[in-house]
Amino acid sequence: MKTAPSAYTRTYARARRHARTLADNYIRHTTIGDPQLDPVMEELSSMPPADLHRFIEAGIEGQDEVLRKAPRSLRNFFADLKEPEWLDYESFRPGIRAFHTNADLMLVAFVAGVLVEGFTTLIAKSFNLTGRVAHTKRRLQQNNRQLMEIFYPGGLERDGDGWKLSTRVRFVHCRIRALLARSEVWDREAWGTPIS
Question: Which of 75, 108, 123, 151 is the most exposed place for a label (fewest CB within 10 A)?
C-alpha cells in the first residue's frame, strides 16, 4: 500500500478494499503536479507577467512568430504537445452525441456535483486559500464553458476551443500550485501536492 497524504489515510484503506488499482492510482496522483509544465513555469517565474501571458497565448493560438521569441523551455513545451498515437477522435462521437442529447441534464449534474462535492473535497482548500471561492458564479461559468467546448465536435483537437481552454487551465493550475507550494499554509504532508 502506497503512503498517502494523511488527509486520505482513512478513506484510502477503505477504497483499496473495493478497487485497489483505482485507489492506488488516485493516491499516487495526489503527489504529482504537472511533470512537464511545472519545471517550465518555475524557470519562467521571474519573467514579467505581460511577456509570459503573451508567449503562452502565442503557444495556445499557434502564433509561431511571437512564440519564436519565447524562452526555449516554453517553445519546447508547446512543440512537445502532440496527440498520442492511440488517440482516436472518432471514438469521441458517441460521448459527444450523448452529451448534446442530454446537455441540460449534464450541465445541471455538473453544477450540482461541483457545488456539493467540489467544495467538500480537498480541492476546496486551494479555492479557499487562493480566494477562488469568492467568485463562484464566474468560476462555474468558466467551467461550464470549458465543458461545452470540450464536447463540441473537434473541441479537443489542437485548434479546438476545448483544447485551448484546457491548456490555459493547465497553466493556471500550475501557477496556483506553485504559489500554494511556497506558502506556509499548504500542508503537503496532509494534503499532498496542490491541485494535483
Answer: 108
